[in-house]
Write a structure and sequence with these properties.
By secondary structure, this protein is an alpha/beta fold. It is built from seven helices and ten strands.
């Protein structure tokens, strides 16, 4: 299981991003408080750790660490929320991960998905957006069990962004500014901009 946390004193925007990511990935979310980075790594032992860093009070980076605490990916981002959807709609459904053959997709596919993600072309990803939900489907009220069986939580990783969707509605878009793979560096404040 993945553990998700943030800088020591996260802004409201960073907390919102952390909670949405935790719901999407079925991850545990931990308020960091005064914990040092070594304590966070200890709590995340046995799974992937994701630390959301800040830049000027906004979410600015996603740093991923493997089971042994070694950094394997850092993505510098800016976020947007194209469509507001209920949190339950983010929480339910099967996962589908697909993306172009880039560094972000390769590392996430290796460490988070165990190689289960689908590599597709940028054109294929764009084509999949041409089948919008029918209004009758959107209006139907589903139980939690029905949502879990019918909804699809999809992460599409492009070269310049990551689209998070639930039931074909994009609720979060993270624009990729830059990427570091391998030893991305560790600092004890992990994103505090003080």
């Amino acid at each position: 299981m993945m553990l998700l946390t943030s800088s020591r004193k996260p802004s409201q925007k960073t907390k919102i991003l952390c909670k949405k990511l935790a719901l999407f990935f079925d991850a545990a979310y931990m308020n960091r408080g005064k914990m040092g980075f070594s304590d966070v790594l200890e709590n995340g032992a046995g799974g992937v750790l994701l630390v959301v860093g800040e830049f000027h009070g906004n979410p600015g980076s996603l740093s991923f660490y493997d089971e042994s605490g070694q950094p394997f990916l850092s993505v510098y981002i800016s976020e947007s929320y194209p469509e507001k959807i209920p949190q339950d709609d983010i929480r339910f459904g099967r996962h589908v991960f697909c993306g172009t053959d880039n560094a972000v997709f390769q590392k996430l596919n290796e460490y988070l998905l165990g190689g289960a993600g689908d590599i597709v072309s940028e054109v294929s990803l764009s084509e999949s957006k041409k089948n919008p939900i029918k209004k009758e489907q959107a209006a139907k009220v589903l139980t939690a069990k029905e949502k879990n069986e019918t909804f699809v939580r999809k992460l599409e990783i492009y070269n310049d962004r990551m689209d998070f969707s639930s039931d074909e509605r994009i609720f979060m878009r993270l624009y990729v500014k830059s990427v570091k793979t391998g030893d991305v560096g560790v600092c004890d404040d992990a994103g505090d901009d003080e």
